[in-house]
Design goal:
Blueprint: H1 5-14, E1 31-35, E2 39-44, E3 47-53, E4 69-73, E5 79-83
Antiparallel strand pairs: 1-2, 2-3, 4-5
Length: 101
């Protein structure tokens, strides 16, 4: 497919990667993020959904929020911004466990 250079480089320089989750997000799930020097892996309910080689080496912080705004730079070089028209929303965290690897 066509690649738009500016969006492609924005994604490349930011280290951003994405995947579509097929889980029912109205149900409770267990999310696991393992961030190592040369590999970042993301699981939902014990199923690996994204593996990224050479993730950014900057310090990792944790932020959780619910927002209807988005900015996306896709691997195909598409760059999009906008807001989603959404109804009532909620975001609950049952527990968080962070530990060094």
């Amino acid at each position: 497919g066509e690649t738009r250079p500016a969006a492609h480089w924005l994604q490349h320089l930011s280290g951003a990667h994405e995947t579509l989750l097929t889980a029912d997000l109205t149900e409770w799930h267990t999310y696991t993020l393992e961030w190592r020097t040369h590999l970042a892996s993301f699981w939902v309910d014990g199923v690996l959904v994204l593996r990224v080689p050479d993730p950014p080496a900057r310090p990792l912080g944790f932020v959780a929020w619910l927002d209807n705004q988005y900015a996306v730079a896709t691997p195909r070089g598409e760059l999009r911004f906008g807001t989603l028209n959404s109804g009532p929303e909620w975001f609950e965290l049952g527990s968080i466990h962070i530990e060094p690897l």
